[in-house]
Write a structure and sequence with these properties.
Structural class: mainly beta
Number of strands: 11
Shape: globular
Strand content: over 45%
Order of helices and strands: EEEEEEEEEEE
Helix content: under 10%
Largest sheet: 7 strands, mixed
Distance between the termini: 40 Å
Number of helices: 0
Radius of gyration: 14 Å
């Protein structure tokens, strides 16, 4: 069973930066596509950024140019570097793993990011 543990959330002022990390257990990380999603109160969970096992990246329009997703296969970890944060970035951020050949998505428990104005 894959386990994901997010960290790095917190309270930051608008314009500030945070780096989120998501560490995965097991040996399938390097064969997996990874993603960061977020859910604000009263809203649906939405895609923030993804990185494939071949390092192809994709971003939502709302974060493009401000956030950077990366991965370190040696550490089984995916990162989300967030800069120029805005109050509307406030949400719980979740990490998702999708392994090749696996029909299921695996989710972490989430980490809270709060951006004050």
């Amino acid at each position: 069973q894959v386990q994901l543990a997010e960290s790095g959330g917190g309270l930051v002022q608008a314009g500030g930066s945070l780096r989120l990390s998501c560490a995965a257990s097991g040996s399938i990380f390097r064969l997996s596509d990874m993603g960061w999603y977020r859910q604000a109160p009263g809203k649906q969970r939405e895609l923030v950024a993804t990185i494939s096992r071949r390092y192809n990246t994709n971003y939502s329009d709302s974060v493009k140019g401000r956030f950077t997703i990366s991965r370190d296969n040696a550490k089984n970890t995916v990162y989300l570097q967030m800069t120029s944060l805005k109050p509307e970035d406030t949400a719980v951020y979740y990490c998702k793993l999708k392994a090749v050949g696996d029909l299921s998505d695996h989710w972490g428990q989430g980490t809270q990011v709060t951006v004050s104005s």
